[in-house]
Specification:
With 95 residues, the protein is an alpha+beta fold. It has a domain of 53 residues. The protein is built from 2 helices and 3 strands, in the order αβββα. The longest helix has 14 residues.
Length: 95
């Protein structure tokens, strides 16, 4: 069995050059979390616990039930949801 050819177009000595919009090296691109899906999951779990989540114009959120709590980012919303839902939440999975 031979080792796979791991060269990418544009390597020195191949005579090929990459265009500005081309990139064949996926190891330099960090995986991006789907924030929309994360946000929808948090909102659904909080709704099942009786809380409403309101999106604010500045990108923040309000979690409301009897009182409201302001969260400036999705990360703060996740932390607040963990506190409100008691850690793992009500579905057995983490928020």
């Amino acid at each position: 069995m031979t080792a796979p050819d791991v060269r990418t177009p544009g390597e020195v000595g191949t005579g090929q050059a990459l265009k500005d919009h081309e990139n064949t090296n996926v190891t330099i691109v960090a995986p991006v979390a789907d924030d929309g899906k994360v946000l929808a999951t948090i909102k659904a779990k909080l709704a099942m616990a009786g809380h409403a989540v309101h999106d604010l114009a500045d990108g923040g959120f309000l979690i409301c039930k009897c009182m409201c709590r302001h969260c400036r980012s999705l990360a703060e919303l996740q932390a607040a949801a963990r506190q409100v839902l008691g850690g793992a939440g009500r579905g057995g999975s983490t928020v």
